[in-house]
Amino acid sequence: MRTLTYFVAVSMDGYIAGPGDEVDVYPTPDAYVAHLAAEYPETMPSHVRPHLGIADAPNRRFDTVVMGRGTYQPGLDLGVTSPYAHLRQYVVSTTTTSPDPAVTVVTDPVTLVKELKAEDGLGIYLAGGAKLAGALYGEIDEVILKLYPVMLGRGVPMIAGEFDVTAFERADVTTLDTGHVILRYTRS
């Protein structure tokens, strides 16, 4: 059975974006980006992959991405209609349609993820955001936090949902010279 992994950038104080959805506050030095490109190549958007030298890198962990409209919209604003062309792409939204046949828009994320988990294949990359992570909270099998060495003070929380304590076990920690830490947890 496939797993759903919430792979997300987060500040030291637990925010995935600033109060106005700012994500440009996260430092992304070349060494950090190179590490992500090497270890998680499929999480790099298709239009960025050639610039990182991983245009044809095989998918290592994921073959499907599920994202909310808020995660999809910045690419659309730049004219990128299929941000992860190397993956099966799903956008969860009740307010948008897809301008690209490679992107499927759905309204029920839980049913979608349960159907995807029943298939064979690599893992499912949950790209965000907080509301979608809250809706899929019970389906998240693994969390990979890209912990950035900054505090935002306030902003968009990692999960927007009901209070529900769920235990996870640390599976891996990678500390980079850049000050970034990649923490991987699996559901207990």
Structure description:
The protein has one domain: Dihydrofolate Reductase, subunit A. The chain is an alpha/beta fold and 188 residues long. It is globular, with a radius of gyration of 16 Å. Helix content is 18%, strand content 29%. β3, α2 and β4 (88-92) form a beta-alpha-beta unit. The model has no long low-confidence stretch (mean pLDDT 96). The strands form two sheets. Strands 5-4-3-6-1-7-10-9 form an eight-stranded mixed beta sheet. A two-stranded antiparallel ribbon has the order 2-8.
Structure summary:
By secondary structure, this protein is of the alpha/beta class. The chain has helices at 30-39, 69-77, 109-117, 130-135, and strands at residues 4-10, 15-17, 62-68, 88-92, 103-106, 123-128, 142-147, 156-157, 168-175, 181-187. The chain has a single domain (9-63, 72-141, 150-182), classed as Dihydrofolate Reductase, subunit A (3-Layer(aba) Sandwich).
Main attributes of the structure:
Dihydrofolate reductase family protein; 188 residues; RibDG_C; 29% strand; Dihydrofolate Reductase, subunit A; DHFR-like_dom_sf; alpha/beta; Riboflavin_Biosynth_HTPR; two-stranded antiparallel ribbon
Major sheet summary line: 8 strands, mixed
Alpha-beta classification: alpha/beta
Instruction: Give me the CATH fold name.
Output: Dihydrofolate Reductase, subunit A
Task: Kindly estimate the percentage of residues that lie in beta strands according to DSSP.
Answer: 25-35%
Strand order of the largest sheet: 5-4-3-6-1-7-10-9
What CATH first level would be assigned?
Answer: Alpha Beta
Number of strands: 10
- As a percent range, the share of helical residues equals 10-25%
Shape: globular
Low-confidence stretches: none
**DSSP summary: helix tally:** 4
Organism: Actinophytocola gossypii
Domain Bacterial bifunctional deaminase-reductase C-terminal: 3-181
InterPro entries: DHFR-like_dom_sf, RibDG_C, Riboflavin_Biosynth_HTPR
Protein name: Dihydrofolate reductase family protein
